[in-house]
Design goal:
By secondary structure, this protein is mainly α. It is built from 3 helices and 2 strands; from the N terminus they run H-H-E-E-H. The protein has one domain. A two-stranded antiparallel ribbon has the order 1-2.
Length: 139
């Protein structure tokens, strides 16, 4: 049995599903906040929200695909170099998947908090409440 193929078949659907779930949640829950921040300009809020979701997908899925390769390397004394092996047991597969999916989940959490921080940084333009009146000086 090729455990590496089993790991890939678990890793890819899991990370893509997590990414879609978090991105949709972010998109749904950010809309009201953006509408309020952009003075009820729904077109601007929707386009900004869609761009944020697209960026989230690109970063999250990109990280997932970059981390896809499962490489169990060990140093071979006979060859004097690192040798790459495939996963050899169910235990190794579970351990490798836990590291990969765990790191992906941490990245998703960091991206979510980064998006939240960006939302907090979007400030409404401050209204100038100071009214200046020109008074004539007494003569």
């Amino acid at each position: 049995m090729n455990y590496t193929i089993v790991a890939y078949s678990i890793y890819l659907p899991t990370t893509v599903t997590l990414c879609i779930w978090i991105a949709r949640s972010l998109h749904r829950n950010t809309k009201a906040f953006l509408v309020e921040r952009f003075h009820h300009n729904e077109a601007l809020a929707n386009s900004t929200n869609n761009l944020i979701q697209t960026g989230f997908y690109l970063i999250a899925l990109g990280f997932s695909f970059v981390k896809l390769r499962i490489n169990k390397a060990h140093y071979s004394n006979e060859l004097g170099r690192y040798v790459s092996d495939t996963l050899g047991s169910a235990q190794e597969t579970i351990e490798e998947l836990s590291v990969k999916i765990g790191s992906f989940t941490l990245i998703l959490g960091l991206l979510l908090f980064l998006n939240f921080f960006i939302m907090l940084m979007i400030q409404r333009p401050k209204k100038n409440n100071h009214t200046f009146s020109i008074q004539e000086e007494p003569r």
